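From the pipeline queue, job 12 of 40. The input is one protein chain; the requested action is below.

Action: predict structure.
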Amino acid sequence: MSSARPTDDTTPLGILCGGGSIPVAVADAVIKQGRAVVMFPLIGWADPQAMARYAHHWIHVGKVGEFTRLARAAGCREIVLVGTLLRPSLKQVRLDWATVRMFPHIARSFRGGDNHLLSGVARIFERQGFLLRGAHEVAPEILIHEGALGSKAPSARDEADIARGLAVLAATGEFDIGQAAVVANRNIIALEAAEGTDRMLDRVAALRRDGRMRVPEGVGVLVKAAKPNQDHRFDLPAIGPSTVEGVARAGLAGIAIVAGEAIIAEPQQVAKRADDLNVFVAGVRRQP
């Protein structure tokens, strides 16, 4: 879990950015607090247009030495890792000399699930003298709260699907294999694997088009929850406007995500899109 040390808000926060809108949401929240940020977008993942508004340095995946040099020069002592990044193969990692020296540690980190990999990456950065922070630690307002975001709330049938989804994720999370499931009429329609939530929703939409999902439109829930014993500094479940649109395309009733343990990007836009598309978005309690 994350360190109990207080946040050092006198130095710029380094944000190592994957894809999606979450890195920008974190940066904007930190800037509103009066703290400077320096973005380190990953080449091939982060959005160049989004990065243009901030001080930034583009980084190849695996260039630990280059990142360390740039972050230290910028005065960063604390860093956050946030945003979409599918697990690269070792062949895709661009090695500099500092990374080569750490290669045995990196190779060991790849031999396990995503949580194992991210914990290994964290240890690598900590060996370089940085303090790893969770996005929720530096910008707690990005966490989703309990209750409905838009005007629509889950029905009794949705609540039953949500309970089933949370139970399934609590069981499968022990194997470090995903943070999302789609449940309809208490049947498990899909579990998230390496493809990520958006592509899982595309798969559900295809099942419906092909007649293999035999439930009416507007039935079924996307349920998201962090894995049991997950290090909350990394890879918390997240949703944004695109998630709402994916749920609507899949013909589902809505989204349930564990409150206080998940990130929401552009909450006002999420609520608006949910109302426009007649789906619900709700923060829910983790089951005991």
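Job complete. The mean pLDDT is 86.
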